[in-house]
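Hi support team,

I submitted a single chain yesterday and got back a structure, but I'm not sure I'm reading the token output correctly. Could someone confirm the output below corresponds to the sequence I sent? I've pasted both exactly as they appear in my results page.

Thanks,
R.
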Amino acid sequence: MLCPNSHRPRNNGRAAASLRFSQPASWGIMSSRLTEPSLSRYYFNVVAGSETIVDFEGTELGDLRAAKLDAISDARWLMSQAVLKGHDISDNRIEISDTDGNVLAVIAFRDTITRFE
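Hi R., thanks for writing in. Yes, this is the structure output for that exact sequence:
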């Protein structure tokens, strides 16, 4: 089964770009020791009617806000590809879940675009 997020790398280099230098308070100089920010794994399952396309890999992101932004981007990309083929998938949604399978947020495709009447 095709992973809905396979069109691009998920982290886009964010983890590496968000590394920061840290130093113990007792040091008067900057340490070269790098610390990584705390990342959580989020899963982006696409729900289309009664069918669910499960994201088995997940993506490590800094927080739920970042996961929601990724889901919005993915929904827009998936809709654009469907429109090019003449299909309307705006009734679909992405369920963002944690490693325990708890649904943390739902992003409805139709809510990611502005409709012109």
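A quick pointer for reading it: The first strand starts at residue 20 and ends at 21. Let us know if anything else looks off.

Best,
Support desk
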